[in-house]
C-alpha cells in the first residue's frame, strides 16, 4: 500500500469516527473484551462539546534543570516533527507546568495537526479557544516549559493513567470523556460502532413511539 493511500484510509477512518460518540464506541470495545482504554476523567477539553478524533502521535518528556535555550530547542524540535492529520498525545510526567500555549497551538494548527491531548497543564486558554485549536488537558497554570522541561521521545508507547497508548492508535474524545482505540482494531471497532448506533436509533424511535423499554431491548438487542 502506498503512503498516499494509507493517508487516505486514515483520513476516512477519522471522519467516520467523528460521526460516532464515546459511549457507543466504549460499549463496542467492552463487548469485545477490551479493557484499560478510557483516559482519566480529569483530562478534559478546553471547549466542552467539541469532538476530537484521529490517529495518535505520542510525545513524552520530563522535568529537569535545563537552560532556557535547550528547552526551547527541544520544544520547537517537537513542533517541527508533529504530523499532520494526527492527534498529539503527550505524557509530560509531571503535573506542574503547562505543555501547551498560544504559539505552540498556532504552530500545530498551521501544520495540520488535528488536536493536542496532554496528561498535564495548559495555558493561554483564551488564545487557544479563539483559534479553535482542540486541546485536552487536566489543569491550568501559567508556568511553561522554559528551563524546566524537555521532550525525551516521540512515536513511542506511553502510559496515560492505566491506558497504554501506541503510536497509530486512535483517539476519540467528546463531552463524556476520551478513549483510545488500538490501531489494529480501529477499523473493526468503528464499523461495529456505526452498526450499534443504528440499532440505538431504532430503540430510540421505538421508545418515542410508546414501545415498552424491555420489549425494545429484546427486539433490537440494544439499550
Describe the structure in your own words.
The structure is a single chain. This protein has a domain at 36-183: Glucose Oxidase, domain 1. Helices cover 39% and strands 23% of the residues. The protein is built from seven helices and twelve strands. The chain has helices at 3-18, 22-31, 68-81, 102-110, 125-131, 186-208, 213-220; strands at 44-45, 52-63, 87-91, 115-118, 121-122, 135-137, 139-140, 149-154, 158-160, 163-165, 170-174, 177-181. The strands form three sheets. Strands 1, 2, 3, 4, 6, 8, 11 and 12 form an eight-stranded mixed beta sheet that branches. It has a two-stranded parallel sheet with strand order 5-7. Strands 9-10 form a two-stranded antiparallel ribbon. The radius of gyration is 19 Å and the shape is elongated. It starts with a helix and ends with a helix.
Summary?
With 223 residues, this protein is of the alpha/beta class. The chain contains 7 helices and 12 strands.
Helix share bin: 25-40%
Count of runs of 4 or more consecutive helical residues = 7
The ordered string of helix (H) and strand (E) elements is HHEEHEHEEHEEEEEEEHH
Largest sheet: 8 strands, mixed
CATH architecture title of the domain at 36-183: 3-Layer(bba) Sandwich
| CATH classification, class level of the domain at 36-183 | Alpha Beta
Task: Round the mean pLDDT to the nearest integer and report it.
Answer: 91
| Overall geometric form | elongated
Q: SS-based structural class?
A: alpha/beta
CATH homologous superfamily identity of the domain at 36-183: Ribonuclease E inhibitor RraA/RraA-like
Number of strands: 12
Q: Pick out the low-confidence regions.
A: 1-10
Q: What is the CA-based Rg, rounded?
A: 19 Å
Amino acid at each position: 500500500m502506498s503512503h498516499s493511500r494509507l493517508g487516505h484510509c486514515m483520513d476516512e477512518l477519522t471522519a467516520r469516527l467523528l460521526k460516532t460518540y464515546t459511549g457507543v464506541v466504549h460499549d463496542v470495545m467492552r463487548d469485545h473484551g477490551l479493557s484499560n482504554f478510557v483516559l482519566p476523567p480529569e483530562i478534559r477539553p478546553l471547549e466542552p462539546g467539541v469532538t476530537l478524533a484521529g490517529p495518535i502521535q505520542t510525545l513524552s518528556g520530563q522535568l529537569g534543570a535545563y537552560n532556557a535555550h535547550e528547552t526551547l530547542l527541544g520544544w520547537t524540535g517537537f513542533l517541527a516533527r508533529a504530523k499532520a492529520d494526527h492527534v498529539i498525545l503527550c505524557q509530560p510526567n509531571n503535573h506542574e507546568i503547562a505543555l501547551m500555549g498560544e504559539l505552540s497551538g498556532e504552530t500545530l494548527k498551521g501544520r495540520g495537526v488535528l488536536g493536542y491531548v496532554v496528561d498535564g497543564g495548559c495555558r493561554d486558554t483564551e488564545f487557544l479557544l479563539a483559534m479553535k485549536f482542540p486541546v485536552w488537558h487536566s489543569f491550568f497554570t501559567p508556568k511553561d516549559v522554559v528551563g524546566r522541561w524537555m521532550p525525551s521521545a516521540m512515536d513511542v508507547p506511553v502510559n496515560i493513567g492505566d491506558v497504554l497508548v501506541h503510536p497509530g492508535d486512535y483517539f476519540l474524545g467528546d463531552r463524556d470523556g476520551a478513549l483510545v482505540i488500538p490501531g489494529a482494531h480501529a477499523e473493526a471497532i468503528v464499523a461495529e460502532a456505526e452498526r450499534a448506533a443504528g440499532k440505538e436509533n431504532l430503540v430510540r424511535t421505538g421508545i418515542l413511539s410508546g414501545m415498552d423499554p424491555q420489549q425494545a431491548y429484546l427486539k433490537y438487542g440494544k439499550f
